[in-house]
Amino acid sequence: MGRTPLDAPERLREVFAAVLDVLAEVGYARFNMDLVAGRARASKASLYQRWPSKARLITDALRANLPQSPQPDEGAFAEDVRQIIRAWREPPFDTAGIFLGLLEGSRQDADLASLREEHVDRAYTEHLRVAVERAKARGELPESLDADVLITALISTFVLRSEEPGVVEGIVDGLLRPLLGAFRTK
Q: Which one-letter DSSP state was computed for residue 166?
């Protein structure tokens, strides 16, 4: 009896879970097809046949596990951010390890940096960018606010504290709401 082909959805999920686990555990520099093949019970040759580089394999694994959620419109920036960040918590992976591996790899591998920017970064920033623009239109945020800096701060805080209980509430209620109050008092 043969193995299920890598094209089968359940096999792809197994391979991609192995990819993300390995990336989180060893980082990009030590990530290799042998580690993934062993963890996913697949041959290294079959992995290389489908993914010619580790950058492409990692990017496909990330794309398959991006948070899927509609654009929230709760009428308040803090509540939109709460919904967005809650969606990020859904994948059962080591978020900090994965993102640190991506950052490390992006410094070493231009292909990974390009693929990450094109396929992963946009997925995490798109909903926040819309929420920031709505908040500016409602007067919750000043027009002069640099959306990229705020988005980077929110994502970075989430990544670095993603394993902590109550991280979503800490970011929204402990960081964002006080900042929004400071904007209003000026």
A: T
Q: How far apart are CA 150 and CA 129, in angstroms?
A: 9
What's the CATH number where 123 sits?
1.10.357.10
First to last CA, the chain: 70
The dihedral through the CA atoms of 157, 185, 135, 178 has a sign that is positive
E-only strand ranges, the chain: none
> Residue 115: in which H helix or E strand, if any?
helix 110-115
Average pLDDT over residues 44-67: 93
Q: Quote the number of domains for the chain.
A: 2
Cβ proximity of 31 and 54 under 8 Å: yes
Kindly state the average pLDDT of the residues 9-28.
95
Contact 157, 175 (CB under 8 A): yes
Number of Cβ within 10 Å of residue 147's Cβ equals 16
**Side chain identity at residue 110, one-letter code:** A
The tens digit of pLDDT for each residue in 137-178 reads 999 999 999 999 999 999 999 988 888 899 999 999 999 999
- What domain range is 19 assigned to? 9-62
Instruction: Determine, yes or no, domain membership for 3.
Output: no
